[in-house]
User: What shape does this take?
Amino acid sequence: MPTLFQYAPEIVTTFPNVVGGVIYVPAVSNGPTPSDLLDQYLEEQRAVIARIGDTPLSEVPALSAWRGAFRTFGVDPTGYRSAAESLLRRLTKKGDLPSINTLVDIGNLVSIRYALPVAVFDMRGVSGGTRVAFASGSESFMPLEAQQVEHPSPGEVVFVDDAGTASARRWCWRQSAASAARADTTRILITVEAHHDAGRADVDAALHDLNSLLDRYAPGNRKTAVVDASSPVFSAVD
Assistant: This one.
């Protein structure tokens, strides 16, 4: 079976507590967010704001663990925040998060619920499988907001395919332009990851919620798995 996602050996050696939930959907439809899903998304935002209250985001266990992971590979987590912390920071400062599309909103809803980074990757531009690995610096990355290819810093953690194209930099800081879920996205890989003590339980719960939302709003055959230091490879067949 082809390998779709894996943690490189040096990643699980350096981050032995990492837990990743993965969902592969070989055929899916995306589009504008339905009104009832948008209602759920807005309600979740209100609930999260109330739950966090005045608690500094740096004291949320899941986010604190991601800050520690960033420091381990040499990144200042206040200069480059994990995707989950960025979402929650915007939510708590601005009071809401914009709706993007069905798949992105599903991912963001679950991300703020568990304070975990959830990424929805469009697979059309992926060559072979995706590895979470330390960058050599030769990988190519096209940001969403730019028109010029970047190269990751050697030693930063990236999501990279067999052709050396990175779909995410600084682990879960930012996705590439090509990997973003768009209206015409038809094949996706979803990841949700954790490093904190309760990470496995939270990833399991997040996977359950993601699958429930996909059942209702983006149904289709899919395969779900958990990858970690003891089982770092996820394979599936179209």
Notes: The mean pLDDT is 96. Strands lie at 3-7, 19-25, 118-122, 130-134, 157-161, 166-169, 174-175, 188-194, 223-228, 233-235.
